[in-house]
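Subject: sequence -> structure tokens, single chain

Hey, anyone have a minute? Need the predicted structure for the following. Not urgent.
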Amino acid sequence: MHIMNIGKFLLIVLLAVSVRTTAADSFTQNGLTFCVTSDSLNTVEIISRANALAETWKNLEIPATVHYGEKEYQVTSIADDVFYITHHLQTLKVPESVTHIGSRAFSYCYELQHVELPSTLTDISDGLFENCTKLTKVVMSDSVHTIGNRAFAYCEQLEPFDLTNSVRTVGDCAFMCCLQWTSVTLPATVEYWGRNVFLNCINLRTVNFGMSSLYRAADILDAWDHEYDVFNLPANMSYVDIGCLSEFRGLKAVNIDPANANYATREGVLYDKTMSQLLWYPKNKQEETFIVPESVKSIFTLNENTHLRQITLPDSLQIIASYAFSGTPIESISIPTTVTEFGNYVFCNCPTLKHVVLKCPLSTLPNGTFSGCKLLESIEGLDSITSIGSMCFYESGLRNYSIPASVSIIDGWAFARCRNLKQICLPSHARYIGNAAFLECEQLEEITLPDSLQFLGNGAFTQCMKLRSFSIAADNPNYCDVEGVLADKHHQRLLYYPTGRTDTLYTIPGSIKRIGDEAFYKQPFLRTLVMHAKIDSLGAGALHDCPQLSRITGLPAVPPYYNDGTRMISDFNADVYVPFGSLEAYQQDFMWSQYRLHEVDAAINSAIVSPMRNDVSKMEISLDGIIPKHAHRRGIHISKGKKILR
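Reply:
Had a minute. Here:
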């Protein structure tokens, strides 16, 4: 007990000594509290201010030295947040004795206008002048190496200044919302740039690149839809990253130093040094017309410029790269005979393109050439093509189109979602039509398949809502139509049931053994499907998403195989009728067991397939002789001596 009391006494003595030492190391003069940082060097730091006196400050000059006791101390640093929200402060001068100013030391000084910093200061700390909205001028020397995160953020009136040759690091959002900055130079001497350094500098229009690379330019500047008049690139930029330039959607022009060995610019457009390759066209260049120079042999991209309406191509042109004209609002264009290479998606998503003349001899119309051209009306010069690439006319505005007689291949999705297409004339010797080639051509009313057809892909005519029947030449060696339904030549595989067919009941022909992939996919009218004992399999998605299909009957004793992943009907409320003795087999099948299974004999089965009639008597008797309370209850009933299904 005695030992514990001694311990407590010693602890109290130590605390008292500590308090007296701290009190002796700090003192207040002229509204500022100083803390001694070194007795041997006689240095102090400003650690706080007396708020009552601070309210009156307008012009503050930090003292270089202060006296305390018998000593003179040198002021070498200012701690974090010391002058945070000093309301009336307008001017600030920091003496040469100060080598460090802490983070946010002068932030939110809304009236601060003029600052003079010493040559001894090497770092502008994080948030040092953040939200000093009236700060106009900062005088600092070449000694500054670091400008911290948000150091001048929201200094809306700050005059632009050069990032001196000594600056090596510029932090995140350092100059965010500096509204007076109309131009800036990004010097090569800066070794590290933060993110969003010039974010929301809404009046920044000109950027001069001292740095020899565009890497991270979009991180440093405000790339997203910010309008820039020009980027000036240096002579030592050996590689211009087109992808980086394209991130600046609001850029109007790019200029490069004429001394650059690899690139040249004219009227804001970037070319190779010999101007034989058009490499990049500014996305926000304002001119509506563009005449490509006669020296150009290759066009790589017009960068989805939204102002171009007319483009004139030279006879020297040989190569048009993929996506070259995509997204431009041109209305018509003529491709010269000299073009030998034509890329994919060249005109995709040209919203106003109506007429195209292809004078160049093409054997293949490449993938996606006119996809998304919703006003497209005509294409001239396709007489030589033998194949139409994937998604070539996807979601285009074609209404009537005769595919050139030379075409033998129509690739997948070639005309998919051409929602205005009413008539399509297939060439007489077309042999290949790919998957989903005419998917969702909602206005397509009829189709005649040629006798040369050898392959028809899955979903080629799915959701063609007005297509009610298929027609195919009788001598086609691969396909036939059975009363408007498409099947293989041997009548063993049902391939397509027209989406626009309005019958509510369909009986599968007795010769059919297999139902193909997506054969009835999204058929909106079919309610009852009658199968038969020979059916042995259903393809993937064969009956998927048929909203009205609620009963399937005539099934064989052995559950038909279904392709892995097939969902026959959109919900599991459908009634499926199976022969006597096969119920257990269907219940054990993963697919079929999910539906309402009914075991019926052949006679009942034939009654189920009778179409529903509007004149059926309301008086109905169930098979067990009971009059149901609800006349429209689902089930098998007898009405006027006939078995019917509700």
